[in-house]
Structures are given as C-alpha cells and as structure tokens.
Amino acid sequence: MVKRVIRFYVDGFRSMASWSRTLWIIILLKLFILFFIFKLIFFKDTLNTKYDTDRERSEHVIEQITK
Amino acid sequence: MVENIDLSLVDWSRGQFALTAMFHWIFVPLTLGLGYIVAIMETIYVKTGNPEWKRITKFWMNLFGINFAIGVATGIILEFQFGTNWSNYSWFVGDIFGAPLAIEGIMAFFMESTFIAVMFFGWDKVSRKFHLTSSWLTAIGANLSALWILVANAWMQNPVGMRFNPETARNEMENFWEVLFSPTAVNKFLHTTTSGFVLASIFVVGISAWFLLHKRDQMFAKKSIVVGSIFGLIATFMVIFTGDGAAKDIAKHQPMKLASMEGLYQGETGAPLMIYGFFSGSDEERLKEPKEDNFAFNIPVPGMLSFLANGDFDSYVPGIRDMLYGNDEHNILSFEERIKRGHVAQQTLKEFKDAEKNGNTTKYNSLKAKFNDKEWLNTYMKYFGYGTYYDPDPQKLKANVLELVPPVTIAFHSFHIMVGLGTLFVLVFLLLLFYTMKNKIEDTRWLLWVALWSIPLAYLAQQTGWLVAEVGRQPWVIQDMMNTRMAVSQIGTGAVQTTFWLFAITFVGLAIAEVKIMLTQIKKGPKEGGQ
Question: The domain containing residue A40 runs over which residues?
C-alpha cells in the first residue's frame, strides 16, 4: 500500500508538464523565503525572545495595555 | 494614555498587515470558488461520460492549480506578524485564536495536500468516482480551511464564549461552540466564501468570453459560461442573503461600523440607505463641525437602512454622534462614559497585578472577585479597550472621543462599491445565460467585453468587502476590548518598514508569476492545457 502511494506521487511528479515544474520551483522558493529569511531573520516571537516566563510576559502585556 | 503611543509604529504595522492580508486575499477567493466549479464540471463528465467535459474540467483545474500554488502559504506571514508585530494582541487572545488556526493548519495540510495530489496526478490512475470524490473534497477542504480563520476573525468582531483571566492577562475559551456558531461567525463564513464563489464564476465567464471574442473553442466557452453563470447566480443570491444577516449582526454588535458604512452621523427613525453619495468636507471636518446634510450628493432610499439593520422600515438606527455623545432616549451610552468605565477596568487590572507583586492577599482576593462578578464585568470590563483613550483633563478626554470613529469615507465608498458590483454581477450572469440559451452569445460582443472586464471588478469587490470589514471596525482589533495601539509590539518602526517593503517586493514578484503563467495557459486553450 505504502509503495503504491509512493509510486503514485513519483509517477505524478515525473509526468508533470514543464509549467507545473515552474510552479513547484516557485512554491519551494517561496517557502524558503518565508521560513528561512522572513521567519528566522525578521520575525522572532517578541514575547518569547524578550521574556523567559509566562509571568513576565503577562506582566509586560498588562503594562502595555493599561498604560 | 494616547500620547504615550508611537503612531508611526502602529500605522506601519497596520499597513504591513493590510498589505499581507489583501495580497493573500487575491488568491483565496478564486481557490474557494473555482474548486467547486471544477468539481461540478467533473461531475457532469462522470455523469455523461462526454470527453468534452473532461477537457473542460482539466483546463479549469489547471488554472485552479496555478492559483493554488502561487497563493499557498502566503497567509502564513500573517501568523508570523501576530507573534512579532502584534505580540500584545497574540498574548491577550490566548487560545481563542490559536485553536482555530491550529485546526486550520492540520486540516489544510491533510485534506488539501492529499486530495489535490489525486486531482492532478490521479487521472487514469484511480477510478473516475474516486477522482471525482477527491475533487469535491479538495473544494470542501479549502472552504473548511477558510472557516477557521474566519471564525477567529469573527471572534475579534464579536468576542463571545470566553472569559478574561486577570492573572495571565489572557482570554480563555469557555465555550468552543459559542465561538464557532456565533451569528457573526456563521454570517462571516458564509458571506465570505460565497463571495469567493461569485469571483470564481466571474473568472470563468470572463475568460470564456475572451475565447468567444477571439472565436476560439466556442463550444468549450459556451459550456463554461453556462456552468459559471448558474453557479454565479446561485452564489450571488447567497451573498445577498448572508450579507443581510451580516448587516443585522453589525447593527447589533458594531453599530459604529454600520453608521460609518452609511455615513449616518445623526441617528434616525426610518433611516435611509444610500444608493451612492459623495461627502462634503473631510471626515475630521464633519465630526468637528456638525451639519444638517453631510453629503454633497446622494441618492437615498428612505427607511431602507432601518430595514437592513433591524428588519423594520420604521426602526431607529443610531448615528455616529449618538454613539459619541450618547442618546438617553434610545439608551445609548456615550463613548466618554465608556472611556471612563474602561479606565476603571484597566486600573483595576493594574492594581490587581500590583497587589499580587506586593503580596497583598486581601486586596488581591477582593480585586480578583471583581473579574468573576458578572455585573462588574458588564459595567466596566466590557469597555476595557476604551480606557486607553482616558485623560484626566476633560477637554483632552472630549477630543480623544473622536479617535473612536473609523475612517468614514473609506468605509462608505468600500461598502457601496462592493454592493454595486455585486448587483452588476447578477445582471452579467443573467444576460450571459439569456444570450447563451438563445445561441446568440458569440454575436453579443459588448456583453463579452463586459464579462471580461468584470474579472478585475470582481477582485475590486473582494478587496472593498475586506476594507468594509476591517477598516469599518477601527480602532478595534478586538471589539471594545483591545484597540490597535494596545495590540502592537514595541519594536523599531524601521524594522517594520523594512519588512513592509520586502513583502511588497515578494508579493509583486508572485503576482507577476501568477499572471504570466496563467495567461500562458489560457492562451494555449483547453486542447493543450487539458492534455
């Protein structure tokens, strides 16, 4: 069963038209930009980076939303 | 207070979120609707066994695949932004936002990735019925993915089924079903997805019109027009029906949004609905200098807004001023009073945290009890977000009240453009069906041009619909609980500006790729594209 499923996907990718391959290149490039450039470099979780405990995080948020 | 907040940071963060959401929303509605149209076409193929329908199905399926591939994962960036740019908000909403988004991620991954593979790789490898089932499940899966994010958005417009925990400063879900089945969530999901069906139908009839204008693949184009027009007509009536439900819900939970959508400054019994209009003066001028008539030009339909809001032509609809300054006759609390009550709630939370820090158990327990007292919650906590606009100086407090009005001009025009285009699409579908049935469609070139040019208009309708929903609810991120200023993370404005432009470049690149690949496939036509 697993072999048949794997073969199904392998055959599908092999018989793709050239424009479909271009789409896959775009998808992979996009995922690389999103997860390895944007997420790792620019989008760090602000509260998790700055504070170690949930208690500190909640204190920070309360300070921010009540100032 | 308000003056402590860096507005440029708030504006850039909002701009960045809006850019991402609006770009993401270019792809989503087509996926939502085209999935069903493809499934319907394939059903006709399976029922009739006519290979012409297989060719038609494959052509539109390829366009569905291109749109899906380019658009997939663009929404992930919104989730990155929650943690980085809107960390106060992310913390405050707690598991209410997290649970639906997690379900969405899992469902989207398993349903779409499995059945899309069968859709594209499975022709001649699996049975016709299994392939057809996969096409339907892909369409249903895409729409179910949209359900969860729309439920989360609906909760922000009408927060229900939760309880605020003062110890963690987070909202905790108390009733999942109340969140899922709140009228706001049901209307939002149905209105948004069916509007996607309309866009996809316009896309199908518009491209089919292009083939007829070029005298190519005429039978394919006519058959596509019939399916697209019938599906589009049904979807448009669903949009109108759910839009009516959404308007009544907005009237109940977001009356300021409704008043802004209609430019209603002073409440009225038998309030009119504007067919269209142009304001005199700017939003600020109209707020600061009250006038009898705020329009330079308008076409009103008497009583229609009252009917839209309450199902009664003679009912009262509050205007912007009624909400800002209160209206005793109609039991409307002024925003100034709401700000004072919100301030009390915010100060109570602050004192509660101080008591916890200082180990003052008696005060801690007495303040904690307030957060469990229904009357206190309804009197003060309900207006928590308004407290940000508090100022001990009465003059400054009065001035701050005006900041609670959304950009009226944007909300008004977006709403009317959306409704106007929806009405136009009904006519387009009806006329296309009429002339196709009369077998005169290829000679009615003006209508074919209208259908073709309706494609950008359908995208405009989608974006303006999103503007009504999101700009109309400003300044709230969570209605009455948290405004954009409270929600934003204190990070450098420069960092937000950098990512804004990086996104803009990435998105433009993806949009160019989408249009280029799609146009190439469309020009090849159903013969080549369908093989």
Answer: 2-65
At CB < 8 A and 24+ separation, what contacts does B504-507 make? B504/B19, B506/A30, B506/A33, B507/B19, B507/B20, B507/B23, B507/B74
Write the DSSP assignment of B416-440 as a string of letters: HHHHHHHHHHHHHHHHHHHHHHTT-
Query: Where is B278: in which H helix or E strand?
Result: strand B273-279
Q: Which residues pair with B173 in a beta bridge?
A: B162
Quote the CA–CA distance of A45 and B353 in Å, as a whole number.
24
Count of domains observed in chain A:
1
Inter-residue contact B232 to B201 (CB < 8 Å): yes
Q: Are B229 and B61 in contact (CB under 8 A)?
A: no
Q: Residue B155's closest CA among B486, B407, B482, B387? A: B482
Contact residues on chain B for A67, CB-CB shorter than 8 A: 1, 4
Asked if the C-beta of A56 comes within 8 angstroms of chain B's C-beta atoms, the answer is no
Residues of chain A positioned with their CB less than 8 A from the CB of B77? 34, 38
Does pLDDT of A39 surpass 60? Answer: yes
**B-chain residue closest to A49, CA distance:** B84
| Average pLDDT in chain B | 91
ipTM, two decimals: 0.86
Mean pLDDT, to the nearest integer, of B47-64? Answer: 94
What is the distance between the alpha carbons of residues B24 and B404, in angstroms, rounded to a whole number? 28
Measured CA to CA, the distance from residue B153 to residue B283 in angstroms comes to: 27
Phi/psi at B393 (nearest 5 deg)? -80, 115
Beta bridge partners of B278: B297
Cβ of B427 under 8 Å from any chain A Cβ? no
Considering only CB atoms, A47 lies closest to which of B80, B87, B495, namely B87
Confidence of residue B529 (pLDDT cuts 50, 70, 90): very low
pLDDT band for position B530 (cuts 50, 70, 90): very low
